[in-house]
Amino acid sequence: MKTTRLLAALSIAFAAAGMASAQTATVAKADADRLVAIAQANMAEVAAGKIAVEKSTNPEVKAFAQKMIDDHTTGLDETKKVAQAKNVTLPDAPDAAHQKMAADLQKLSGAAFDKAYIRQGGVADHAKVHAALKKDMTSAKDADIKALAAKLEPIVAEHGAMAKKVQGALK
What we know:
This protein is mainly alpha-helical.
C-alpha cells in the first residue's frame, strides 16, 4: 500500500514537472540568435533616432528619426513578447558596432550629421535588417519567430525606402 502511494505521488510529481517544462517554451539556438539580432536592430534604430531628433535641424531627418523611434519601439516590444514566451534573454543595449556608430554620430553636427545618420542608420542598416528578416521568414524553425519577421519585414522595407528618399533630398 505504501509503495503504491509512493509510486502515485512520484507519478504526479513527474507529470507536474513535465507539464512545467512544457510550459516553458524553448527554441533552437539559431532562432534565439534571430530574436537577439531583431532586438538589437530595433534598439539601435531607437538609439540613433533619439540622437537625430536631438541633433538634426533638418525637418525631414527629424521626422524620419521620430518614425524610427516610434516604429522600432513597437518592434522591440513585440520582439520582447516573443522572446519572453520562448524563454530567450535579450540584451539591454545595441551591439558594439551600433554603439560605435552612435558615438561617431554624437561627434557630428549639421549637414554632416544628417548625411551620416541617413546613410548609416537609415539606408545601410535597413538594407541589412530587411535582408535578415527575409531570411528569418524562411529559415526560422519557430512559427512565432517566423511570424514576427513577417510582421516586421514590410515596416523595415518602408523605412529603407523612406531613408533613400531623405538621402536623395540631402544631396
